[in-house]
Amino acid sequence: MKITKDLNTLTKNEFITIFGSIFEKSEWIANETFKLKPFKNSKDLVDKMINIYDSCSVDKILKILNLHPKLAIEKKLSSFSSKEQTGAELDKCSNEELIEFNKLNFDYEKKFKFPFIIAVKRKNKDQILENFRIRIKNNYEEEFQEAKKQVTKIALFRLNEILEIY
């Protein structure tokens, strides 16, 4: 979706409709970003939105992490997540791959108390599984920081798709 209107002329409802899903099921970030108008340009909007996320408390970050779907097995996805997972062919997993995703998702969430998060855009299911197998061995702090970084990557991919800036 390409925005054809000046960012500063968007109504609050238009803004939330467009940017509300940048951070998975966390419209409040778009809402807070809207309050920071005017935006000098697209990059300014992106910087403000990412800064709101980066400034979150650990508890808020954990809530955001826990709003992300379990890869390859969760059926109820946001439109962005559905498109991203389909692009990575996670909808075409073999039975063996689904079994492994199921086990990894379960073990990972049991260990870290949030789902495995990876920016799947430009990756295939083999690369994602390989990342999963490696990252499940991390300690909590390493994985928390990595998950937080992956959420930022996902947000930047989504913002780029809307704003076509990178």
Explain this structure.
α2 packs across α3. The chain has a single domain, classed as UraD-like (Orthogonal Bundle). The longest helix has 24 residues, at 140-163. The model has no long low-confidence stretch (mean pLDDT 93). It is 60% helix and 0% strand. With 166 residues, it is mainly α.
Radius of gyration: 16 Å
**CATH domain class:** Mainly Alpha
For the largest beta-sheet, the strand count, sense and barrel status come to: none
Mean pLDDT: 93
The DSSP helix count reads 8
* Number of structural domains: 1
Structural class: mainly alpha
Strand elements, count? 0
Q: Which percent range describes the beta-strand content?
A: under 5%
The CATH architecture would be Orthogonal Bundle
Q: CATH H level: which superfamily? A: Oxo-4-hydroxy-4-carboxy-5-ureidoimidazoline decarboxylase
Report helical residue fraction. Answer: 55-70%
- SSE string: HHHHHHHH
Q: Which runs of at least 5 residues are low in confidence (pLDDT < 50)?
A: none
The CATH topology is UraD-like
Large-scale geometry: globular
Through-space gap between termini:
15 Å
Topology readout:
Layout: H1 12-19, H2 27-34, H3 42-54, H4 58-66, H5 79-87, H6 95-112, H7 125-135, H8 140-163
In short:
With 166 residues, the protein is an all-alpha fold. The chain has 8 helices and no strands.
Please name the defining characteristics of this protein.
mainly alpha, 166 residues, globular, UraD-like
